[in-house]
Design goal:
This protein is mostly beta strands and about 100 residues long. Helix content is about 0%, strand content about 50%. The two termini are about 20 Å apart.
């Protein structure tokens, strides 16, 4: 599944995520039981360095129409030069209204 990551004050996506996996954590993580693992070749889609905004709430929009607030929990590079990481989902997913 693909997704786009947005800062709250920007209309254009700051990251385009090629592969996203939704993971539900066990009972020890009651406040934020969902996380998204991602892999992408274009983590910085524009001129904004997404890593510098890791402590700010961002919004993710999945290709199936769901969206949620997230925090960048971890990011790194794999052996092929792709960005990989973890986004912590804050709250629940919401359906995006059609435009």
């Amino acid at each position: 599944m693909k997704a786009m990551l947005y800062l709250f004050d920007k209309e254009a996506p700051v990251a385009i995520l090629d592969e996203v996996q939704l993971v539900t954590l066990n009972d020890n993580h009651k406040a934020s039981p969902l996380q998204l693992n991602f892999k992408t070749a274009k983590f910085n889609a524009g001129k904004i360095m997404t890593e510098m905004h890791r402590h700010e709430k961002m919004q993710i929009r999945l290709e199936d129409g769901r969206s949620a607030d997230v925090l960048l929990q971890h990011s790194s590079l794999d052996m092929q030069g792709n960005s990989v990481g973890v986004l912590r989902v804050l709250g629940a997913f919401a359906e995006v209204a059609p435009a």
